[in-house]
Recover the amino acids of this structure.
């Protein structure tokens, strides 16, 4: 392989050009690997938080005219029998006002069975003061979102009045505070299921039934089968978050265009370097031809050069990309929780496959950008090439 | 010997450059060069000496006519076949040495052998032998930048001979050297010619050097006169 030997010699004898071309590729690969880590980390985080912060399936009334599920006990039992279902939790959702001294706030007054809700939503993880299970034996107890409590200026142990037109104003004791890091903290009040039913004078009905499944990615299928069997409306987390998920798709298209442009720039850098090398080596190319080097071999000499530049660049780039990703990961960037769905730091994920992709495409781009200069070299007229000074 | 077919035979070989105006760089050239001859091509500049060299050297293609090398019509060959012939049958020495600057003298001489697909070991042995022959045994690992003009030209000659070509072409091989070094190089070429019985074709301005050749071809306005 004398072609490779010549390629190596030529590449490493023009050190500055070589260095800059390698840096161009390395930089492109670095930027792309870091971006990939950010984006896949962000998407993963978003999907995980969608799965964790929402019920996997929410069963609701048949159509919009109906307000309630009437046979919720039967439906709950039927659903919990289904394969892949871990837990079900019927819920009563109502709007009411909470009053404490001179403060009043509109709230989403939610009636839950603490045990069932815990097994579906794991809400005790979000309880920052008090204990969820106190609700089991406290008929008039309520857990408030911490933001809500702050606005009402109540503390655990205080009593608040729940007010709704047509309902008997009832006093509830604050037994705990909840912090989820989302806007729900400003409006949520949890009380016992039967207490809320009684308060709204709607015994025997539920607004929704929440379902937890073993494999969140099976939620769509299970939701479909619940709909068929009960005739009720069942919405999976992916259906409920369809907008976010389609936003992620749009985002990945944009990001891919961005990657394409970055690779394009790096590719032009390589092509430019090689065109310069070809121009500088014109006479040598002529001599090589006079010595019997075929057009094909001349092409190989310059394609090898672009591969050498590319390979060096992508190795350097993946190393730099990895270091940058790790560095950014350990550096916790505070972002306002409202902006990023409760994320507190930038989620970066080191996905080995991403590095493989980035490196692979960088290499392809390098070969492609080597083709034009290599052809240019191969097509040189040996007489003119030798006579060029 | 004269009954043997010639190494090179030109039949009505013509090269026309169309550069706005038609320029007949070589006009109906007919020529036979026998094996082992040392031929000098002389003529004023622009007379077509280089064009003739480039055509014989398969670096350029004629506009019309036939060129036979070793009895084979080379005008109808593919790039691959022509490259192969340049490698195995032809050796070039240019006015300027045109060595590859990134390679040592030894590597430069090895290069045509490597292009021919010979093993490194074989190439190295041949190259070392040839560099000794041209008197550069102590300079093998020097790069062209570290050698004098005469030394580089000797490396270039060794390179031209590395694949044992049947034809060696010299385009003013001494033109860039002082008279003394030039004479030395010329003597070297003449000696190698006799030693290996290779055909040498040398373009030169120098009438005195030309007079030492077996045959002188004079070119005037693209037309040949053989002496």
């Amino acid at each position: 392989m004398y072609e490779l030997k010549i390629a190596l010699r030529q590449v490493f004898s023009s050190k500055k050009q070589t260095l800059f071309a390698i840096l161009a590729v390395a930089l492109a690969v670095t930027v792309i690997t870091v971006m990939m880590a950010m984006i896949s980390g962000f998407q993963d985080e978003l999907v995980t938080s969608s799965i964790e912060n929402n019920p996997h399936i929410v069963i609701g009334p048949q159509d919009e005219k109906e307000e309630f599920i009437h046979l919720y006990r039967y439906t709950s039992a039927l659903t919990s029998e289904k394969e892949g279902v871990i837990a079900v939790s019927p819920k009563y959702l109502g709007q009411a006002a909470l009053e404490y001294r001179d403060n009043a706030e509109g709230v989403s007054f939610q009636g839950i069975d603490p045990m069932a809700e815990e097994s579906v939503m794991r809400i005790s993880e979000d309880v920052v003061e008090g204990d969820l299970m106190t609700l089991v034996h406290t008929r008039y107890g309520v857990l408030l979102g911490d933001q809500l409590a702050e606005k009402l200026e109540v503390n655990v142990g205080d009593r608040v009045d729940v007010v709704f037109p047509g309902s008997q104003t009832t006093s509830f004791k604050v037994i705990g505070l909840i912090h989820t890091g989302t806007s729900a903290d400003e409006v949520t009040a949890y009380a016992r299921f039967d207490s809320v039913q009684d308060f709204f004078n709607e015994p025997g009905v539920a607004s929704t039934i929440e379902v937890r499944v073993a494999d969140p990615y099976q939620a769509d299928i299970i939701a479909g089968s619940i709909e068929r069997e009960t005739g009720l409306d069942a919405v999976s987390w992916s259906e409920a978050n369809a907008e976010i998920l389609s936003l992620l798709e749009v985002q990945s298209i944009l990001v891919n265009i961005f990657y394409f442009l970055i690779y394009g720039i790096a590719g032009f850098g390589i092509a430019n370097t090689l065109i310069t090398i070809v121009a500088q080596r014109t006479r040598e190319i002529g001599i090589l031809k006079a010595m019997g080097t075929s057009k094909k071999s001349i092409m190989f000499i310059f394609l090898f050069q672009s591969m050498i530049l590319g390979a060096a660049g992508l190795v350097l780039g993946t190393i730099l990309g990895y270091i940058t990703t790790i560095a950014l990961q350990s550096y916790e960037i505070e972002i306002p929780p409202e902006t990023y769905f409760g994320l507190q730091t930038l989620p970066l994920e080191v996905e080995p496959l991403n590095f493989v992709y980035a490196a692979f495409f960088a290499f392809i781009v390098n070969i492609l950008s080597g083709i034009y200069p290599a052809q240019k070299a191969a097509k040189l007229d040996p007489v003119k090439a030798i006579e060029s000074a | 010997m004269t009954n043997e077919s010639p190494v090179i035979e030109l039949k009505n070989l013509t090269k026309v450059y169309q550069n706005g105006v038609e320029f007949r760089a070589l006009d109906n050239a007919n020529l036979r060069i026998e094996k082992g001859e040392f031929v000098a091509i002389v003529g004023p500049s622009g007379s077509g000496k280089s064009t003739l060299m480039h055509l014989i050297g398969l670096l350029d293609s004629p506009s019309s006519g036939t060129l036979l090398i070793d009895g084979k019509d080379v005008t109808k060959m593919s790039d691959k076949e022509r490259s192969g012939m340049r490698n195995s049958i032809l050796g070039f020495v240019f006015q300027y040495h045109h060595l590859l600057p990134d390679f040592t003298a030894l590597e430069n001489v090895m290069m045509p052998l490597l292009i021919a697909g010979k093993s490194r070991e074989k190439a190295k042995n041949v190259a070392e032998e040839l560099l000794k022959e041209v008197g550069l045994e102590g300079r093998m690992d020097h790069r062209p930048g570290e050698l004098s003009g005469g030394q580089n030209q000797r490396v270039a000659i060794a390179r031209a001979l590395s694949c044992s070509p049947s034809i060696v072409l010299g385009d003013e091989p001494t033109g860039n050297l002082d008279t003394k070094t030039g004479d030395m190089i010329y003597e070297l070429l003449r000696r190698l010619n006799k030693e290996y019985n290779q055909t040498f074709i040398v373009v030169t301005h120098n009438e005195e050097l030309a007079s030492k050749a077996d045959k002188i071809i004079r070119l005037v306005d693209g037309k040949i006169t053989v002496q």
